[in-house]
């Protein structure tokens, strides 16, 4: 049987878990937290880089979310808008999270400083640019949004950025338009299944929906 090793608060894990639910792919799961991931024997055995998600099948081990998607959706997926959404999350929104995590880490360790302010400002600027690309170029009609794996990834990263951003310039940015994406995911039965099964799970900190 297929086995998915994942962490609820990993946006890449969330997107792959959603995809497997959406495709009704028979699988068991090995659910970790960020703390247990570091010493988990099964993950270490199959992925020495200790990355999630990792998908174990009868034929192979896939230890990268992009490779898992290509395995499940086929190589024509890279031509779709959803693939562009995935890359926006994988590159641009991930850079946003790195800036914001580093800003928070610097503040916790040394207090507010020029360095932490610089990191936070860079994160906010990168977030706004990424949201502009999302709404002005990739999802021009937010009233008709098709939920797929790339959107789940991007939306998860938006949620995390808003949660850790500590900035009104980030938190309020194009919020009403993002709410339409929130509505699309709220109505998706597989995203509903994801949230119902894993909200409140041990280690889960990042939300599944937008909060004003």
Description:
- The protein has 212 residues and is of the alpha+beta class.
- Helix content is 61%, strand content 8%.
- The protein contains ten helices and four strands, in the order βαβααββααααααα.
- The chain has helices at 11-22, 34-37, 41-46, 65-73, 81-110, 114-138, 149-164, 168-171, 175-187, 189-198, and strands spanning 2-7, 27-32, 54-56, 61-62.
- It has a four-stranded mixed beta sheet with strand order 2-1-3-4.
- α1 (11-22) packs antiparallel against α7 (149-164) and α5 (81-110) packs antiparallel against α6.
- The longest helix has 30 residues, at 81-110.
- The radius of gyration is 17 Å and the shape is globular.
- The termini are far apart.
- The mean pLDDT is 95.
Supply database-style keywords.
212 residues; alpha+beta; 4-stranded mixed β-sheet; 10 helices; 61% helix; 8% strand; globular
Task: Give the arrangement of secondary structure elements.
Layout (H helix, E strand, L loop, with lengths): L1 E6 L3 H12 L4 E6 L1 H4 L3 H6 L7 E3 L4 E2 L2 H9 L7 H30 L3 H25 L10 H16 L3 H4 L3 H13 L1 H10 L14
Parallel strand pairs: 1-2
Antiparallel strand pairs: 1-3, 3-4
Helix pairs in contact: 1-7, 1-10, 5-6, 5-7
């Amino acid at each position: 049987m297929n086995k998915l090793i994942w962490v609820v608060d990993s946006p890449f894990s969330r997107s792959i878990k959603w995809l497997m639910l959406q495709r009704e792919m028979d699988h068991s799961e090995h659910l970790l937290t960020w703390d247990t991931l570091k010493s988990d024997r099964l993950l270490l055995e199959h992925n020495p880089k200790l990355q999630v998600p990792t998908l174990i099948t009868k034929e192979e081990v896939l230890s990268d979310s992009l490779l898992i998607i290509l395995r499940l959706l086929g190589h024509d997926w890279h031509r779709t808008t959803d693939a562009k959404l995935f890359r926006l999350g994988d590159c641009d929104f991930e850079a946003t999270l790195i800036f914001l995590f580093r800003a928070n880490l610097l503040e916790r360790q040394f207090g507010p400083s020029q360095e932490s302010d610089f990191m936070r400002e860079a994160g906010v600027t990168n977030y706004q640019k990424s949201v502009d690309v999302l709404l002005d170029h990739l999802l021009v009609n937010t009233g008709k949004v098709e939920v797929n794996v790339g959107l789940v990834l991007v939306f998860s990263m938006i949620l995390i950025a808003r949660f850790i951003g500590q900035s009104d310039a980030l938190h309020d940015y194009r919020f009403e338009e993002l709410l339409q994406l929130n509505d699309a995911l709220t109505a998706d039965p597989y995203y509903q299944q994801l949230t119902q099964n894993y909200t409140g799970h041990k280690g889960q900190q990042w939300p599944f929906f937008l909060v004003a």
